[in-house]
Specification:
With about 500 residues, the protein is α/β, with parallel strands linked by helices. The chain has helices spanning about 1-10, 45-55, 70-75, 105-110, 235-250, 280-300, 350-355, 380-390, 405, 490-505; strands spanning about 20-25, 55-60, 115-120, 150, 165, 170, 180, 210, 215, 220, 255-260, 310-315, 360, 370-375, 420, 435, 440-445, 470. It has two domains: about 20-175 and about 220-405, Alkaline Phosphatase, subunit A (3-Layer(aba) Sandwich), CATH 3.40.720; about 420-505, 2-Layer Sandwich (Arylsulfatase, C-terminal domain), CATH 3.30.1120. A ten-stranded mixed β-sheet has the order 6-5-4-3-11-1-12-13-2-14, sandwiched between helices. Helix 2 packs across helix 6 and helix 5 (about 235-250) packs parallel to helix 6 (about 280-300). The radius of gyration is 22 Å and the shape is globular. The structure holds 2-acetamido-2-deoxy-6-O-sulfo-beta-D-galactopyranose and calcium ion (CA). 2-acetamido-2-deoxy-6-O-sulfo-beta-D-galactopyranose (NG6) binds near residues 29, 67, 123 and 218.
């Protein structure tokens, strides 16, 4: 009998399906060193610290790219962005990058019976060829598995400053249609170039198109006056909408993707956070982000959902200081180290670009502690499919590793063996790449290999004239000493692994 039970136990999958609520909170441009639970000392992030203390805090948690759009594409599709066409930073009038019919994190959870919503920044394109701003904005999130969305369509330094609810621009007056384009439609329309002295936050590069709320943006737009929001109110609105979604769905399993805009430029948090971090608006935006996390935790508590909710907190790329506006990010930085000890940040394939805060919490299920396992935002799709008992077709979620036990902080559980790190990926397979495998890190130096313009303030990435450099992250976490010359076999082995990943149809085991 005992043997029979033992055999049965072996035959069963490691997990019988479990369907906790899932909340993924993704910060924007948050670096490894930007939270007090990850070593920041200049200001405190008490709510995120509390979340980390309740669950697992990962020291090798990653997003899959060092800009927004490719990381989000990979989070939702479980596939490396370089395999997906046009998945670099999306322009204001970009079409939907993830095509209807694609198996996605939300479609998997919908199949498992979840109510699904995305609230916050989208930046993954809308529409077939371009967004139909005055009509139905589809395909979009609702065509790839979300039941509901409440969005900022691109990113707030790009036009237009309006909310999209499900398929429509919210509060759009048909008598005042919205027009969005790449060229100034009329010399009468004030821009960051023509009316620079009127701006309340000057631009440093790009960002000199249409002015809204005293801040000029990338691109141009007219109309939709009633629909426009104030930058300062974005976070509050998304908390209001997230709370509504949680409360409306508290009796079924739900999946909420809360995509914060903090601390992306233009950094303009609500007035109550301005001046509070002592490091300028960049730090103030981190305090706003921390407040948002606290509000979501509070709502879950008040609805008695905390014990049955798995929260993942992560970022979409590493930190940047001057990302186009003179907002004091450099002048008021002080001793704060946005990327911690890592080199580079947003736009780079060094660790600072993709190694970011990564926290999982599910009280009662996830023990409190710190994990050194390699986990990535790209793994949520396959891991949650495994958890909720949804089987994946072979060609779905091609690079998402089912590493649920590691995400849950189970003793001895292994994360990924290796991880490809891409920059914006605009050159597809020809881009610069990082490859981490165990303690080893290979960098392929190519084309768009960003150096992160805040060179003096984040550790600068060193351009190499060698095609590949190699580092040992245990001995040299800051990737300062290229040891490819002394480790020729290891370098060759890593180059081969990189080429295999690039050529493979999929890497999901
Ligand atoms: C860059 C913008 C930068 C930021 C980034 C996207 C310029 C000069 N730079 O092209 O300001 O918007 O795109 O950031 O315009 S992300 O986090 O959404 O990827
Ligand atoms: Ca970002």
């Amino acid at each position: 009998m005992k043997t029979l039970i033992a055999l049965l136990a072996l035959a069963l999958p490691a997990f019988s399906a479990e369907k906790p609520n899932i909340v993924v909170i993704m910060a924007d441009d948050l670096g490894y060193g930007d939270l007090s639970c990850y070593g920041a000392t200049t200001f405190e992030t008490p709510n995120i610290d509390r979340l980390a203390a309740s669950g697992q805090r990962f020291t090798s948690g990653y997003c899959s790219a060092s800009t927004c759009t490719p990381t989000r594409v990979s989070l939702l599709t479980g596939t490396y962005a370089f395999r997906i066409k046009n998945s670099g930073i999306a322009p204001p009038n970009g079409p939907a990058i993830i095509r209807p019919g694609t198996v996605t994190l939300p479609s998997i959870l919908k199949e498992a019976g979840y109510a699904t919503a995305v609230i916050g920044k989208w930046h993954l394109g809308l529409g077939d060829e371009k967004p139909d701003w005055n009509g139905d904005l589809k395909p979009g999130p609702l065509e790839i598995g979300f039941d509901h969305c409440f969005l900022l369509p691109t990113t707030n330094d790009r036009v237009p400053q309006v909310y999209v609810e499900d398929h429509r621009v919210l509060n759009l007056d048909p008598a005042d249609p919205l027009w969005v384009g790449n060229k100034n439609p009329s010399p009468e329309l004030p821009t960051g170039k023509s009316h620079r002295s009127t701006l309340r936050m000057d631009w440093t590069h790009g960002h000199n198109g249409t002015i809204h709320n005293g801040i000029s943006r990338i691109g141009f737009y007219t109309g939709g006056k009633e629909a426009r929001f104030r930058d300062e109110d974005l976070a509050d609105k998304w908390i209001e909408k997230s709370n509504e979604f949680i409360i409306a769905n508290k009796d079924k399993p739900f999946f909420l993707f809360h995509a914060s805009h903090d601390l992306h430029v233009p950094r303009m948090p609500h007035e109550r956070f301005q001046g509070k971090s002592g490091t300028g608006l960049r730090g103030d935006a981190i305090l706003e982000l921390d407040w948002c996390v606290g509000e979501i935790m509070k709502t879950l508590d008040a609805q008695d959902l905390t014990e049955n909710t798995l929260i993942v907190f992560c970022s979409d790329n590493g930190p940047v200081l001057d990302d186009g506006y003179a907002d004091g990010a450099i002048s008021e930085l002080g001793d704060h180290k946005p990327a911690g000890i890592f080199t580079g940040g947003k736009y780079t394939v060094t660790e600072g670009g993709t190694r970011t805060p990564f926290i999982t919490s599910w009280p009662g299920k996830i023990p409190a502690g710190t994990s050194e396992e390699i986990v990535c935002t790209i793994d949520l799709a396959a891991s949650f499919a495994e958890m909720t008992g949804v089987s994946l077709p072979d060609d779905a979620c091609r690079d998402s590793f089912p590493i649920l036990p590691a995400l849950l902080g189970q003793k001895g559980a292994k994360g990924r063996e290796n991880l490809l790190q891409q920059d914006n990926g605009s050159q597809g397979k020809d881009s610069a790449f990082g490859l981490r495998s165990g303690d080893w890190k290979l960098i392929r130096h190519k084309g768009g290999w960003g150096t992160n313009d805040a060179k003096k303030h984040l550790k600068p990435t060193k351009k190499s004239n060698k095609p590949y450099t190699l580092y040992n992250l245990t001995e040299d976490p800051s990737e300062e000493n290229d040891i490819s010359g002394d480790n020729k076999d290891k370098t060759q082995e890593m180059i081969q692994l990189l080429n295999e990943i690039l050529a493979a149809e999929r890497t999901r085991p």
